[in-house]
Design goal:
- With 414 residues, the chain is α/β, with parallel strands linked by helices.
- It has 14 helices and 18 strands.
- Strand 6 and strand 7 form a beta hairpin.
- The two termini are 40 Å apart.
């Protein structure tokens, strides 16, 4: 089996499919697994050039993260890919007590014996921009761009509210390692970027944040990462994949238009205002609404789906939505067992991970484009009602208001 160009571990499920999409669209054959694959599993894909593991560490306390990640990182190092990426959300969701990216850096640096750990968070394709160490993010698909500590959603996140946009200050609460910066002024040429990086490392910085504002800067950042000592452990958003593929210059993949299908089952555990708007839009356009706490939720959903009517299952309040994830996971398997559904949408990072595990999903490959950050995938789930179906996993901030309708109607006639 040839050694993959890179591997990645996603701190939640939707972030993992985002990285899968970035690689697959760029022409890098990639498979996403729900656990660290064995060499035998990888050998089933002779054309494989990258692989990922979809995790759930964003919802863990630091001690649990370390227990989970240390053996994972050791296994990924043994599998031999020269670049290992710990994929985080492009809004840097984390805190000292939950989903600590600082603890990840500490563990990864030790396992990979890293002289320094580069951090790339910007993702221009998703409306995420890092400038002089500060992170900015678009609100919704086409909305205004806000500094993260003033973002209408992220500054009020119910679990990890972002009250500091300077990622160096935010990260300094999670690790004792010194943090340097290659700022946006030094990304016009590879020579300038490397000089700034070398200066930061020479000054003793063990973590180096790299700005990212424009697509044209991606090849420069890719060369910076590729030129570092191997194995390289890097932390960041799917901007890491975008930078590396811009440098590799492979032939981009061409996906067939996504055909229309019905019925569609939507399972929503995200409490993002963006997702709330998408749910309301879908219901107004004919999706049957099922509340997750309803005692007969499975029967109601199965009846509507049997009548070929789209269904959205969600909580009836923001407060309850945070607790709805486990119930949604149980409902998902029961509904799919009752009714043959060809396409499923899942909204929410933690929700996606729980549902994938409840459905026994082993791996997935991208088969179509819907919106950036939420590709259409086909899943492998042996002995499960989900085996072979099409799914898309959507983060809370991803997609236009009509995204649920897009999942049903596809892109064939767009």
């Amino acid at each position: 089996m040839p050694i993959p160009l890179m591997s990645f571990y996603g701190d939640d499920f939707t972030g993992s499919t985002d990285a899968l999409e970035s690689l697959a669209r760029a022409g890098v054959p990639t498979v996403l697994f729900t656990g660290v694959p064995t060499a035998q599993q990888l050998a089933r894909y002779p054309d494989l050039q990258a692989f990922g593991v979809a995790g759930m560490t964003r919802a863990m306390a630091p001690a649990e993260m370390e227990r989970t990640l240390r053996p994972v990182f050791r296994s990924l190092r043994e599998l031999g890919s020269p670049i290992v990426h710990y994929k985080v959300c492009s809004t840097f969701d984390s805190s000292p007590t939950l989903g600590s990216i600082g603890r990840v850096i500490d563990v990864g640096a030790a396992v990979f014996e890293s002289k320094f750990v580069p951090v790339v968070v910007g993702a221009p394709a998703l409306g995420r921009y890092c400038v002089f160490g500060n992170l900015f993010a678009r609100y919704g698909a086409e909305g205004e761009i806000f500094r993260l500590d003033r973002h209408p959603s992220m500054s009020r996140h119910p679990v990890t509210p972002m009250d500091e946009a300077d990622l160096r200050l935010h990260l300094a609460k999670q690790t004792d390692k010194s943090i340097g910066l290659v700022d946006v002024r030094h990304l016009d040429s590879i020579e300038c970027a490397r000089e700034q990086l070398d200066r930061s490392v020479a000054d003793g910085d063990k973590v180096v944040l790299i700005d990212l504002l424009r697509e044209e800067q991606l090849p420069v950042i890719g060369r910076v990462l590729d030129g570092a000592s191997k194995p390289l452990f890097v932390v960041g958003s799917s901007g890491v994949e975008s930078a590396l593929t811009a440098m590799w210059k492979m032939t981009p993949a061409t996906f067939a238009p996504v055909p229309r299908t019905e019925p569609v089952l939507a399972l929503c555990g995200s409490c993002s205002p963006v997702t709330e708007g998408q749910i309301a839009h879908a219901i107004a356009r004919g999706f049957a609404e099922v509340i997750v706490d309803a005692p007969d939720a499975v029967a109601i959903a199965a009846r509507h789906l049997g009548e070929r009517r789209n269904v959205v299952i969600h909580s009836d309040s923001k407060r309850k939505m945070v607790d709805a994830t486990a119930k949604l996971a149980g409902l998902a398997r029961r509904v799919l067992k009752e009714t043959p559904v060809k396409r499923v949408l899942v909204a929410g990072g933690d929700t996606s991970g729980r549902i994938a595990r409840e459905l026994g999903i082993e791996s997935m490959e991208m088969i179509g484009e819907l919106t950036r950050g939420s590709p259409l995938v086909r899943v492998v789930a042996p002995n499960s009602p989900a085996d072979g179906i099409e799914m898309t996993f959507k983060g809370g901030q991803i997609g236009a208001v009509d995204f649920f309708s897009l999942v049903q109607n596809g892109t064939e006639h767009a």
